[in-house]
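Morning. Coffee machine broken again, so started the prediction first thing and wrote up yesterday's gels while waiting. Chain of 445 residues, entered below exactly as on the submission form.
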Amino acid sequence: MNHPRLVAVIAGATATGKSKLALELAGRFNGEIISSDSMQVYKGLDILTNKVSHAEQELVPHHLVNVIEPGRKFNVLDFRDMALPIIDRLMNQGKLPIIVGGTYYYTEALIWDTLLTETHRNTNTEEWDPDLINLYPELSNEEVWSKLNDIDPVHAAELHPNCRRKVDSSLYGYHRYGIVHSQLVAKQHKTSGSAIRGPLRYANSVILHLHADKRILDERIERRAEEMISDGLLEELQLFHDEYLTVDDNDFTKGILQSIGLKDFLPYLRASGSDRSRLLPQCVERLKISTRQYSRRQESWLRNRVLPYPQESPPVYSLDVSNPSLWDSMVATPAANVIGCLLRGSSPSVPLTNRIAGRTDNKSRNFCSACELLLIGDRTYRDHMASRKHMKRLLAINKILLRDKRVSFNPDDTLVPVIHDDSLPVSNYDSTAIEQVPPSLRHSI
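Came back before lunch.
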């Protein structure tokens, strides 16, 4: 079958069945799979990183799985430079490239022609290496952020000082190429009309979004963690530990050491005897928690980076994978309809996913004095102010103030405080801290 230049992306949180659907579509439409997973690209830790089996890889060719040695540095630019020629070759051969994986900044590097990654390389000079961009290792996060603020206050205002890697990257880019981040963004906006990335690399591309009820997804993550233990995860981790983690200065923010769960099992791997039996349940629970948190972050990619930008993103078709018994009717058949129609140049019968209006966030700097947090973006600030964490902090503050009789509530039971101590630094907590406690929580004070 001679396919037009269609590129398919399968997106979704972990445990939604992305690999299963990719295998089915590849078999049906003469496709091959490009993994966009920053951990599966490394050799080893097959169980922990949830790689497809060798049998499945024999059924359909998989690219960029098990190709990098664990100790080698590898970043998104390396990934892009390896993946794009594969996609071009597949399309020239009339095959369907299917991009699947949970590292969505890897996926973005393939789908969008992002100017921020178009640095000029020279084989005779040092290449861009995120593992070497920390120009000021002796300085604190705040001090490094101040240096960025001196040269690029526009971009610095968009970053939290604790976003050290982004701050370091921006400083490195300036010192090496002589152009600040905000100027690159302005150039990108002028070229593509987008402030967050460049134009689409492939005009004919599509995103199939797999989603499930959060409760069901959490249950699957629980079962997957238990199955990983049964499949030999502990033995796999022990072998990896003995070969690569025998020293105490491992950096778990780099390379394959970032794999979800690896750091969680260190106490178990470095213990012995009865201590292992005691620590194992704790480590397994940490693995489940880390995976659930990662799953939430994966879901936010589509919501924050794709759906609010319909004019500069591929069409998105969402498929509900909550009920495994309905996989064929709810997932496989609709997905095949979408791909088949787009290959023929017709419109799929599956409805497009509704775009999210007003989800974009500015980069304003907001400070919650109650929680002592700097929050970037008005929406992020609003979400925090409505969060349970913030409300619990307010309740704790108010209990202290009421205990010391430094404030009280009006007799009419309104939420407006009466301040008895003029020296009370209410502004240190938030000028509206007490008013923000909902009436339903008043009994907790």
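The mean pLDDT is 83. Going to sketch it on the whiteboard this afternoon.
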